[in-house]
């Protein structure tokens, strides 16, 4: 008994037990410290690249262009008085209303249709491929596609081809009458002779301004058509290029070697009314038969000299914004389709099959089952696109030509133009940046809350 007490007396006391609640708090505190150490580099980058620029822009927006004089809210009031800024706000509104709606709708339709395509994966890859193209490259591609010159712009090349199928274009847009040789130009661009010709007369109509290489392939010499007899009820003539290759010849006279102008429309006019119409032959000759006695004039209508159809001004002030939105759709449709397709693949198939068994057609299934079930996915896609559209810059700046840059400008491009693109007013530019941030924040908050609810 005594030895036992001695052993107990010499033994070290046991450490006091830690309550479980305190131990849990220590573990949580240690976990927070470790998590903070891991998150700290990201927070540092976030602060340097996001928080600091935002705070700096807010502060800079309260100073003048030089950054030395405090002006308070003057930049914000000036922003809404500037017509260019108001136009940028209007264009941004058009982008926000049109682009996300079209993209979400196209993505939904394509996602549903792709499910019924045999090579669905290849089709998705093809549509998603534009996402791999940078906005700079896409802007250059569409700038060339929208070029007004049909020889460069693929869209105008197609439009001109279709137009020329249904309506003939002029073969002599640069032709004009030889001055002082019987032809006068009208206000509408036509040429006509004096009103003193009678049936049985022959008239020569000399033209210049056409290069020999630009003559139609079947054009023949006009000298043979210039001679010959004319019937008593007939009015004859020849339209020819008054130019002798190699030099020489007499102006206003059909010389040997001068070519006729085939395919030119000619009219016989009496008392201001067109009584007969014809087209010149390969040698430039024409004739009007069965004319009654009287005084006539010969007219070359303005359609002979109309400039060729050049297509549509895709990048003009009226169409530039819709055309840039079209380029944006080309890039982002695949993105919307893939996201919506992922949501579509997660839909319960038993609900769709039950609807088919109950007799619902595909349109009813799409409208009453597929779309309601996809509503969360569609909302996320739509809001994400709204955020992206508000910040669009590259396409607008690259595709819109300089003369219409102001007609196509949005808030992002206006902010850059005011700050660095010649305006050199970084106070006003910072105010535009703050406005853009305030417009984007509600959509971002909505998306974050949506993600939290889904989790």
UniProtKB/TrEMBL annotation:
InterPro entries: MetI-like, MetI-like_sf, Sdr_B, UgpAE/MalFG_permease. Residues 89-447 form the ABC transmembrane type-1 domain. It is found in: Cell membrane; Secreted. Residues 1-23 are annotated as: Disordered. PROSITE patterns: ABC_TM1. The chain crosses the membrane at residues 33-55, 93-113, 125-146, 327-348, 369-387, 427-448. The keyword Signal applies. Keywords: Cell membrane, Membrane, Secreted, Signal, Transmembrane, Transmembrane helix, Transport. Residues 1-10 have a biased composition (Basic and acidic residues). Pfam families: BPD_transp_1, SdrD_B. It is a multi-pass membrane protein. Belongs to the binding-protein-dependent transport system permease family. PANTHER family: BLL4140 PROTEIN, DIACETYLCHITOBIOSE UPTAKE SYSTEM PERMEASE PROTEIN DASB. This is ABC transporter permease subunit. The lineage of its organism: Bacteria, Bacillati, Actinomycetota, Actinomycetes, Kitasatosporales.
């Amino acid at each position: 008994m005594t030895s036992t007490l001695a052993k107990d007396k010499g033994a070290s006391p046991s450490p006091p037990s830690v309550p479980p609640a305190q131990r849990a708090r220590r573990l949580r505190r240690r976990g927070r410290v470790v998590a903070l150490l891991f998150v700290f580099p990201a927070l540092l980058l976030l602060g340097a690249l996001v928080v600091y620029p935002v705070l700096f822009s807010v502060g800079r927006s309260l100073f003048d262009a030089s950054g030395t004089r405090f002006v308070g809210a003057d930049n914000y009031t000036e922003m809404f008085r500037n017509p260019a800024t108001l136009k940028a706000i209007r264009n941004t509104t058009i982008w926000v209303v049109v682009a996300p709606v079209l993209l979400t709708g196209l993505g939904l339709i394509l996602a549903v249709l792709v499910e019924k395509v045999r090579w669905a994966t290849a089709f998705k890859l093809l549509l998603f491929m534009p996402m791999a193209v940078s906005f700079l490259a896409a802007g250059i591609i569409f700038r060339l596609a929208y070029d007004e010159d049909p020889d460069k712009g693929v869209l105008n090349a197609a439009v001109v081809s279709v137009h020329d199928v249904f309506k003939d274009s002029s073969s002599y847009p640069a032709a004009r009458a030889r001055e002082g040789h019987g032809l006068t130009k009208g206000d509408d661009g036509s040429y006509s002779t004096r009103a003193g010709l009678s049936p049985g007369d022959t008239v020569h109509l000399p033209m210049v301004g056409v290069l020999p290489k630009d003559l139609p392939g079947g054009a023949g010499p006009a000298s043979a058509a210039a001679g010959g007899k004319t019937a008593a009820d007939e009015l004859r003539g020849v339209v020819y290029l008054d130019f002798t290759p190699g030099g020489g010849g007499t102006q206003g006279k059909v010389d040997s070697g001068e070519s006729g102008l085939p395919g030119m429309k000619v009219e016989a006019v009496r008392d201001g009314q067109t009584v007969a119409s014809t087209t010149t032959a390969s040698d430039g000759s024409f004739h009007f038969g069965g004319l009654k006695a009287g005084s006539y004039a010969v007219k070359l209508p303005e359609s002979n000299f109309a400039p060729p159809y050049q297509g549509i001004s895709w990048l003009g002030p009226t169409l530039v914004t819709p055309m840039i939105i079209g380029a944006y759709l080309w890039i982002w449709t695949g993105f919307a389709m893939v996201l919506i397709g992922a949501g579509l693949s997660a839909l319960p198939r038993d609900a769709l099959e039950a609807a088919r068994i109950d007799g619902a057609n595909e349109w009813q299934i799409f409208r009453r089952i597929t779309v309601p079930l996809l509503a969360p996915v569609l909302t996320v896609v739509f809001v994400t696109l709204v955020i992206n559209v508000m910040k669009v810059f590259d396409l607008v700046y690259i595709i819109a030509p300089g003369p219409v840059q102001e007609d196509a400008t949005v808030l992002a491009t206006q902010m850059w133009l005011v700050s660095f693109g010649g305006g050199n007013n970084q106070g006003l530019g910072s105010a535009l940046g703050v406005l853009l941030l305030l417009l984007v924040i509600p959509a971002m908050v909505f998306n974050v809350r949506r993600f939290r609810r889904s989790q």
